[in-house]
Amino acid sequence: xxxxxxxxxxxxxxIALLTxxxxxxxxxxxxxxxxxxxxxxxxxYDAARERASxxxxxxxxxxxxxxxxxxxxxxxxxxxxxxxxxxxGRNTGDRLAxxxxxxxxRRLPLLALVATGGSRMQEGMVALTQLQRVAAASTRLRxxxxxxxxxxxxxxxxxxxxxxxxxxxVVLALPGAQVGFAGSRVRPPDADPYAYSAEGQFAAxxxxxxxxxxxxxxxVTQWLRALGPHEDLPAAPVxxxxxxxxxxxxxxxxxxxxxxxxxxxxxxxxxxxxTEAASxxxxxxxxxxxxxxxxxxxxxxARARDPRRPxxxxxxxxxxxxxxxxxxxxxxxxxxGLLCGLGLRADGQPVAYVAxxxxxxxxxxxxAAARTIRLADRxxxxxxxxxxxxxxxxxxxxxxAGAGAxxxxxxxxxxxxxxxxxxxxxxxGGSGGALALAAPENTHVTVDSYFSVIAPELxxxxxxxxxxxxxxxxxxxxxxxxxxVKLGFALSIVG
Length: 495
What we know:
The chain is elongated. The chain has 17 helices and 17 strands. The chain is 33% helix and 19% strand. By secondary structure, the protein is of the alpha/beta class. Mean pLDDT is 90; it is low at 1-6, 248-270 and 279-288.
């Protein structure tokens, strides 16, 4: 079990970093005395606990209670690594279970500040089974529609990582923190240390953001605002149309045009503060700076593939005042061509988003999308999907990574969603890999988009037609925006 490091923040210092002047009200469960030297009669265990208490001023390795972060009330629990390495024993389990129950009773989000070496060996199986208690408590909180945020401090390892940490809805980590199931003394001697770091876990899609300590309070505040709990939120407004760079402004056209409002240009690094802020405002009607409808199927495909066409990042920056990325599929992979997360619009409304960026979507992207949609559904947050892909990735690596199962799971997540899902097709709608993210009966299209059962080039090849007939094939597929409205697939052309 690691020794305490005086350079590490204490449990109470970690809480104060987030609550500041708002303060913190500590709670304690009813005391349950342990037998002499614990349930195993481990010689010297009582003395070790007394030394840990004298050194830290704490009775156990977890402190919990209620507090306010920014403008949001929550239940906080914080590990004291100086108390026997922040390890989990029976009394630790009592405190963790009580913290989750407090959040459940008061209908508050739970914020866990984790720093632990894992289960406490001096209590043997009694200690190990506390992980089951934590998992059960977390499941009850999840079923009640209450969010859980974990901040992985240094170190976050063992069962504490595998329950309180990795089991949270959103996982943030401090830079340089050791994060992983295997602690430093139990992993293979030749193991790559990067894999057990906050940054390595972010790269592997296990952590949503690596956040510097001085940005943590602001980032957590935004997450608490986005995650809720919420009641009866309206559907996500349809984003407004954005003009193609270099295109001549023309009057907006289309049948049943829709529009939304938002704010402009987002910033933020992938593993930085975990938020992407926007500045500026967006007009409600899209300003009329949109192109006319395509005259042919070939033209529709060409315009959707035009590199000057606005992509997902531009739409998200225009739509949200703040974006909070959810990163990775929690299975060891990421897809940079699919953006997921929650955002806050200029009026404060939270919306979850899943956005394709014009590349073939990989299995990790679909798994991250399903994760985001299910989280939003559980928390009552409406969903916005932006469709733009030539199709699902079809290389051998994608097949080995479970492309079919990942796409199926995304279809299922959309189909099962109880919250409203709004879809805007902003570019290519390539077959099932695009349709998996489209909302039945609430899909809209831009003037520079298309949607097709198959790419016209591939359709012509399957039909053994010469390349010169690709344009005619595109017309037959009826893939233009106006065709999609007439076919009943799209509700409106945004413009």
